[in-house]
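Note to self: the last two entries modelled the partners one at a time, which told us nothing about the interface. This time every component goes in together.
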Amino acid sequence: MRSVGFLSQCKVGRIIIMASEVQANNGVNVEALLAAKEALTNAPEAAQFKWRAACEWKDGTHSHSTVESFYGLGQDQHRKTTFAFDADHPEVFASLDQGATPVEYVLVGLASCLTAGIAAVAQNRNIQLKSVKATIEGDMDIAGILGIDSDVRNGFSGITVKSTSTPTPSPRTSRLSSLSRRSGRRSMTLSPIRRTSRSW
Amino acid sequence: MRSVGFLSQCKVGRIIIMASEVQANNGVNVEALLAAKEALTNAPEAAQFKWRAACEWKDGTHSHSTVESFYGLGQDQHRKTTFAFDADHPEVFASLDQGATPVEYVLVGLASCLTAGIAAVAQNRNIQLKSVKATIEGDMDIAGILGIDSDVRNGFSGITVKSTSTPTPSPRTSRLSSLSRRSGRRSMTLSPIRRTSRSW
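The predicted structure of the combined assembly is written out below.
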């Protein structure tokens, strides 16, 4: 697979989508998003966002991070909730496994971005979703981070999203299968990936 | 800033490290890691890891992800705990803010990776850490994801980790300031970034 930046090729994988032909209501306010698109076209400075996280070391490889405010639409934005996360390394790394690994947090970000994108694109195309499920897997040679081989990249060598289509392909298959590809093209976390799309 | 893959230049920022010169015990089992390095040098196949996440769409832009097993050291590895995460978009995106955004999950991964790396490098250099704190900020022009401008990258245009040194710089400053740079060079999430290091 050809490596592009941080993430290399993504083979679309196990994304299970069940859909039916009814007036779509996937919970995505597409009208508001289209209105925002129009407004921000004339106010590009308002489209400049800054996303933030704060991290505090606890012990060993265990750290605690929080996410609350971000900057966008010309000002700091504050949430009602502070989201908190613990990260750590697993026991096979001689750590205490008190949280997911940093690289797994990246995979969570990617999977959730693709999934939200599918919902948004489906809504925009009036496709009613019943369910969307994805599994994502990132390959890594830890010889790099252990300092065994300086030629080994310290990061993913490949990411695979495994896909399966449900229900059995129908005349709608082409509309369903394009959802994940469209989501990937607009994904804020997937953009540097060159994908080998698979029909489903 | 020059863009390299998914993440562009990172200016080392607000990393506050308090340290003292005692026999270091930062909770990182460096001896085990060095033993693993030696063992895996002779068994490169065991260094091939696969990290995983599973994601399920809930409603709108809200999804729920889980992290449990991964593959490494020649077999599937299972944890005692399944880590669960909710992701969503914020209210300014006409969503319900039921979780951090996907891009914030990526920042959490990056910040926690750098922090764990600092602890590991400090332990290896017999530097006793008292605290490590970091703030990380990712710049993003959402004109890309909204489809306003196809030339705008769908991702971060830059990432800044803000740093401040504490205590006041001393003859040990050079040792402390190199911790974050060393952590960045080995970071599994930061590797493609070209960084402008700042002394502190």
